[in-house]
């Protein structure tokens, strides 16, 4: 088991290109508070966060890998900035997931992620490709006002029929094959504006 204080102390070291903190597979029973901090690159692949994560307003200067993590408490990334690729493939969000007005300067990859208690991505911006392949979600989900400058990939995504996509903008490829909104196919008309090719 790794304490929240140990993780926080390591991640507040200045970022160096090519270096990162290795917290693969750790278990943290406490709430991890990274809010407002400039953070070194980190690999949390397979980690378990029993008390949730608060990274509101944090800046992830290096890699930010949350692949296959389990987050039992709230996951708060509101206003966070990911300077490089943010990878959340296979993440299990067992509490509310909040990415309100987060900024992804690389890719935002959530392939296979599970949101058990809703997700708030309203007002997010992604400069690379944003991927929701095979995502599944229950509860309230919002992407209202989000902008994806590198395209949006939704292959086989399963979103609730109440998902809010109003005011969204997709620049580049919009991939909607096998994507569902409730029991219906997810359509390009569900988005605010789409510039570029749509694949259905």
Largest sheet: 9 strands, parallel
The best one-word shape is globular
Q: Work out the count of structural domains.
A: 1
Structural class: mainly beta
Low-confidence stretches: none
The proportion of strand residues reads 25-35%
Helix content: under 10%
Mean pLDDT: 97
Separation of termini? 45 Å
Strand order of the largest sheet: 1-5-9-13-17-21-25-28-32
Radius of gyration over all CA atoms, rounded = 16 Å
Describe the structure in brief.
This protein is mainly beta and 200 residues long.
Keywords:
9-stranded parallel β-sheet, 200 residues, 8-stranded parallel β-sheet, 4% helix, mainly beta, 33% strand, single chain
Structural summary, described in words:
This protein is mainly beta. It has one domain. It is 4% helix and 33% strand. It has one helix at 4-11, and strands at 21-22, 27-28, 32-33, 38-39, 42-43, 48-49, 53-54, 59-60, 64-65, 70-71, 75-76, 81-82, 86-87, 92-93, 97-98, 103-104, 108-109, 114-115, 119-120, 125-126, 130-131, 136-137, 141-142, 147-148, 152-153, 158-159, 169-171, 174-175, 180-181, 184-185, 193-195, 198-199.
């Amino acid at each position: 088991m790794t304490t929240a204080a140990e993780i926080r102390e390591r991640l507040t070291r200045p970022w160096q290109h090519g270096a990162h903190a290795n917290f693969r597979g750790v278990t943290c029973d406490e709430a991890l508070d990274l809010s407002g901090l400039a953070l070194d690159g980190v690999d949390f692949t397979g980690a378990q966060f029993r008390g949730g994560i608060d990274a509101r307003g944090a800046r992830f200067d290096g890699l930010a890998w949350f692949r296959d993590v389990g987050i039992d408490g709230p996951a708060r990334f509101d206003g966070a900035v990911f300077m490089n690729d943010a990878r959340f493939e296979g993440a299990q969000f067992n509490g509310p997931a909040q990415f309100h007005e987060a900024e992804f300067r690389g890719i935002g990859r959530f392939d296979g992620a599970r949101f058990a208690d809703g997700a708030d991505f309203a007002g997010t911006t992604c400069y690379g490709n944003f991927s929701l392949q095979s995502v599944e979600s229950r509860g309230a989900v919002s992407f209202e006002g989000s902008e994806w400058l590198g395209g949006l990939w939704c292959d086989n995504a399963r979103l609730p029929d109440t998902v809010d996509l109003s005011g969204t903008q997709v620049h580049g490829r919009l991939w909607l094959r096998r994507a569902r909104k409730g029991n219906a196919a997810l359509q390009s008309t569900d988005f605010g504006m789409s510039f570029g090719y749509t694949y259905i």
